[in-house]
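Let us work through a complete example step by step.
Step 1: write down the sequence.
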Amino acid sequence: QVQLVESGGGLVQAGGSLRLSCAASGRTFSSYAMGWFRQAPGKEREFVAAVSWSGAGTYYADSVKGRFTISRDNAKNTVYLQMSSLKPEDTAVYYCAADARGSGSRDRTRYDYWGQGLQVTVSS
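Step 2: predict the structure and record it as C-alpha cells.
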C-alpha cells in the first residue's frame, strides 16, 4: 500500500512558477514509477508527466514539454513537478500517482495509487 500526499499548489500569475511535491509512504517507493496528472473543470483527467523508478526515464505531455520538469528523490520518498512559464490553461487539480510496474506511462489506468489532488490556478 502506498499513500501519496501532494503539496505546493496555489494561485500564481501567468508566466510564474510553482513546484509541486508528492510525498509517499511505504518502503517500496523507489520501485514505483510516478506520474502527475491534471483535471480541469468539465474535462477528463490528463497526463502531465511521468518518471521511471530510477529517475532515468522521463515523459511529458506535449502541452508542458519544455516548461515542466519531473524529478524524484528516492531517499526522501518524494516526487516533484517544477512548473515554469505557467499559462491560464494549466489551471487544474493536479494529482500524483504511483505505478507499480516501474517504467512510467501516459496511461492513467496503469497507476495503482493516487493522491487527493491539489488546486493550481494560473491567473491571466
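Step 3: interpret the result. The two ends are 40 Å apart (CA to CA).
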